[in-house]
Amino acid sequence: MMNNTEIMNKGINCLLEKLGVVETEQFISVIIREKFDYTKWQREQFDNIGAEEFNAAAIAYAKENPIDFTK
User: What is each CA distance from 22 to 60, 68, 69, in whole angstroms?
Assistant: First the structure.
């Protein structure tokens, strides 16, 4: 199990890789400013999606973003 520092470092690295420096800073600013509630956001994102649509999106994402288990 990773400690909090390791999780934060890994998360920031993911954001930097996908968003770049400027957008990562913007993302962090929005999260802090908006008092972001991940659970509420997740419900808003996924409550109106049927199981088949969600499954199809997950499969498509997995195909586009394969996991490298050698890391």
Answer: 28, 27, 29
Alpha helices, H only, the chain: 4-33, 38-46, 51-64
Residue 15 buriedness (CB in 10 A; 0-12 / 13-18 / 19+): middle
Q: How far is CA 23 from the centre of its chain?
A: 14
Cβ-based neighbour number of residue 40 at 10 Å: 9
- For 18, the 3-state DSSP assignment is helix
Domain locations in the chain? 1-34, 37-65
What predicted TM-score, i.e. pTM, was given to this entire model?
A: 0.56
Token pair belonging to 29:
């600013």
**pLDDT tens figures, 43-60:** 888 888 899 998 999 899
